[in-house]
Amino acid sequence: MAFRSYQERIYDAVIRKTNWAGGNVVVHIENNITKVYFYGNRIAVVNHNAKTAEYDNCGYNNACTTARINAVEAACEELGYKIIKRR
Hints:
Order of helices and strands: HEEEEEHE
Strand order of the largest sheet: 1-2-3-4-5-6
Largest sheet: 6 strands, mixed
Shape: globular
Helix content: 25-40%
Low-confidence stretches: none
Distance between the termini: 22 Å
Strand content: 25-35%
Number of helices: 2
């Protein structure tokens, strides 16, 4: 899947379980749980222990939010995690 650089960095941070921040996106991992924030809104939670992912566009149905969520979703699919929620 072809991503732009932000999406690539989000994808890599989720796969590698590392913190990353750039522009309006923050990827934070603590206690093996990755949280992804976009403009301060939590749009994804990835539980690496349970191998599950939860998404929420926070009411922002636009291309930017969708692209960030898609990057997280692609990483979770690569890891074989189950998607438990998507709004």
